[in-house]
Amino acid sequence: MKLTCGTAVIFLLAACVPALAETRTVWLDELDLGVIHQGWGTPQPRKSVKEREILMGGKRYERGVGSHAPGSIHVELDGNAERFQAVVGLDDEVGGQGSATIKVFGDGKLLFESAVLKGGNAPVTLDLDVSGLRRLTLIMGDAGDGISYDNVDWADAKFIVSGESPKLVAAPREEAVILTPPPPASPEINGPRIFGVTPGAPFIYRIPATGERPMRFAADGLPAGLALDPDTGIITGRVENPEKRTWPVTFRAENGHGAAAREFHIVVGDTLALTPPMGWNHWYAHYDRVTDAMMREAADIMVSSGMADAGYMYVNIDDCWMNAPKHRDPKRVGPLRDENGVLVPNQYFPDMAALADYIHGKGLRAGIYISPGKLTCAGFAGSYGHEALDAKTFSDWGYDFLKYDWCSYSEVAPNKRIDSLKKPYIEMSALLRAQDRDMVFNLCQYGWGSVWKWGEEVGGHCWRTAGDLGFELTGYHDVARRNAAHHPYARPGAWNDPDYLQIGYVGAANVMGDPVPCPLTPNEQYSYMSLWCLMAAPLVYSGDMTRLDPFTLNVLCNPEVIDIDQDPLGKQGFPVVQEDGFEVWTKPLEDGSLAVGLFNTEELPRELTLDFAAVGLKGKRQLRDLWRRQDLGEFENTFTATIPRHGVCLLRVCPAP
Ligand code: GLA
Questions:
Q1: Is the Cβ atom of 281 under 6 angstroms away from ligand 1?
Q2: How far is the C-alpha of 392 from the C-alpha of 385, rounded, in Å?
Q3: Cα–Cα dist 479/113, whole Å
Q4: Pairing state of beta strands 24-27 and 37-38?
Q5: Tens of pLDDT along 435-471?
Q6: Is the CB of residue 323 below 6 angstroms from any atom belonging to ligand 1?
Q7: Distance of CA 407 from the midpoint of ligand 1 (Å)
Q8: Residue 318, ligand 1, Cβ within 6 A
Q9: Cα–Cα distance between 207 and 303 in angstroms, integer?
Q10: Spatial CA neighbour of 233 closest among 249, 209, 257, 256
Q11: Phi-psi region of 642 (alpha: psi -120 to 50; beta: other; left: phi over 0)
Q12: Which of the residues 125, 449, 500, 624 has an alpha carbon 20 to 30 A from that of 283?
């Protein structure tokens, strides 16, 4: 080529001006959506979360991603993108319901924050400069009013990219940090401080205490008829005095490292479960695989793991201990009842009375399960037509707790009228009360007919307020909010039950699976336990007892956290501040202090401030961090803490001295 002067100039210019890199468009819906961190609904490419066309404000969008708040999308840009553009709002499929908020962070800094987006409103358009950023985080919040109908679309969402394509990545993994220091070697007495028993009924109570064994126990002021084994701390017997009255008792425990004392009240009267029942139930770990051996092992581990030292005491069998008319395992198929009408347990349960005795031998209490229908939910023998005999059988066998699960009773009472909903529970509670044992009566009918309004009247001590939490475990916080709405109905002997604690190893409910690590992050597990305690919920662990790890035990067994649940005042806490991504829950306690939970429900760690006035407090207060068992000191009017994603700061707030 012959060079002319002009060509040389062009070459020179090209050498001096930085190359204008070519840009291209990468659509969000082309990337691997499987890693979107989201509990509700599966994100959909080019469709709404309900797999319909993306439609907002009547306009159809060809491209985009349908998702559900709360959730987050983490994008690795590695400095390769220049702009992020999207049209965001609630899909028309929610019919004008729902509300959500959108935040976009670039390398941890807020780039965009929407107002509350409501169903039916016009979507918002984003066009953000993301040049040089390594990480973009898209956050969908529930706007503080629950998650129903929060179907968020990221329509026309795209990156303008000059280098490699962006990648969607999983949310950063959390380390399972054990917040609670191990209990001291010297004794500490834990668990409830009040316990109800009916006059003359058998009493069994193992004083829950941490500290090095051997330990010597004493109990001052025990009513006549009760005796304490000083080596095990197990109290048994029957209160001789038939009078309905309260017996103040002082428990004492002593070992080579020191001594402890704790006041305890035995209330002889008509009310059981003066604090929410604490224990273990086999359902979410073993489903229809449960055996007598597993129940005994659970009782052993309740003691050896330290759970009983924190106050756990019921070892409860759920469904599938009886025979079924048909089942995949032939050893669970057989006659439902014997010639006298007595229930026949399946081959995995050779002796139900011996099982209860075994559990009692550890100082623990035994629980059993049946349905008022002809069959249980899993298709095993129900009580219908045999209620009186079953109540007597459970009592004769020595059970202390009955879960009465509606299941097939709908065949008997299909209309769901309130009187029909009440009927089987009225009948069974009267039968239980007629026995020579105290049996805590656990209603399970999924909250139908607003059971919280009449559960106590029909003789229940606790009642499930919703369907099975196992089917929506990652939605535990929303389940808690719904359960908390019934707080005015909770009181000693009458508890709203949002279902079991499913942490550690649990089986997926939809397939009745084998136990696997629970899907919740460590901080979510702290929040879950904190919510349950603030709500005075029954604390019934339902994971695999043989695979309890130190983290799970730390979440389950912090005595000061459990004290919030077991507080004798028996008030159920509820959220008093509900903002987008931030909630404050409170629960008044017997000693005049207030339990306060600060929850960060957002997708990134945040600094959050408790305004004392917002929870009805003024001036100076002493604060204690319950998970860390640490005094934080005195604060005036506000308290600020950095709370991890979906984490909690659980406080006891006391008047300043
Ligand atoms: C229902 C209950 C569960 C469990 C199963 C057993 O689903 O809600 O808690 O008891 O039945 O089949």
A1: no
A2: 14
A3: 27
A4: unpaired
A5: 999 999 999 999 999 999 999 999 999 999 999 999 8
A6: no
A7: 8
A8: yes
A9: 12
A10: 209
A11: beta
A12: 449
d(CA 253, CA 324): 47
**Tokens read off for 96:** 């004008």
Q: Count helices and strands (H / E) in the chain.
A: 12, 42
Our answer on whether the CB atom of 322 is closer than 6 Å to any ligand 1 atom is: no
Per-residue three-class SS string for 153-174? EEEEEEEEECCCCCEEECCCCC
Residue 225 token pair: 């008829």
> Rounded mean pLDDT of the chain?
94
Ligand 1 centroid to residue 404 C-alpha, Å: 10
Closest of 557, 478, 531 to residue 312, by C-alpha: 557
CA distance readout (Å), 309 to 234, 257, 313, 553: 12, 17, 9, 12
Q: What is the DSSP string of 344-408?
A: -B-TT-S-HHHHHHHHHHTT-EEEEEE-SSSB-TTS-B--TT-HHHHHHHHHHHT--EEEEE-TT
pLDDT tens digits along 275-334: 999 999 999 999 999 999 999 999 999 999 999 999 999 999 999 999 999 999 999 999
Question: Per-residue pLDDT for 7 more than 70?
Answer: no
Residues whose CB is less than 8 angstroms from the CB of residue 367 and which lie 6 or more positions away in sequence, other chains included: 279, 281, 314, 315, 316, 317, 399, 400, 401, 402, 403, 440, 442
Confidence check: pLDDT of 15 > 90: no
What are the pLDDT digits (tens) for 581-605?
899 999 999 999 999 999 999 878 9
Please give the distance of CA 537 from its chain centroid, rounded to a whole number.
10
DSSP 397-409: HT--EEEEE-TTH
Give the distance, in angstroms, between the CA of residue 587 and the centroid of all CA atoms in the same chain. 17
Mean pLDDT of 124-137: 97
Handedness of CA 19, 20, 25, 26 (dihedral sign): positive
Q: What is the per-residue pLDDT for 20?
A: 59
Q: Convert the pLDDT of each residue in 145-163 to its tens digit.
A: 777 899 999 999 999 999 9
Report residue 118 as tokens: 């409501």
* DSSP strand pairing (24-27 vs 151-161): antiparallel
Amino acid present at 339? E
**How far apart, in whole angstroms, are the C-alpha atoms of residue 335 and residue 323?**
7
Structure tokens at 408: 């097939």
Neighbours of 20 (CB within 10 A): 7
Residue of the nearest CA to atom 11 in ligand 1?
377
Determine contact, residues 565/537, Cβ cutoff 8 Å. yes
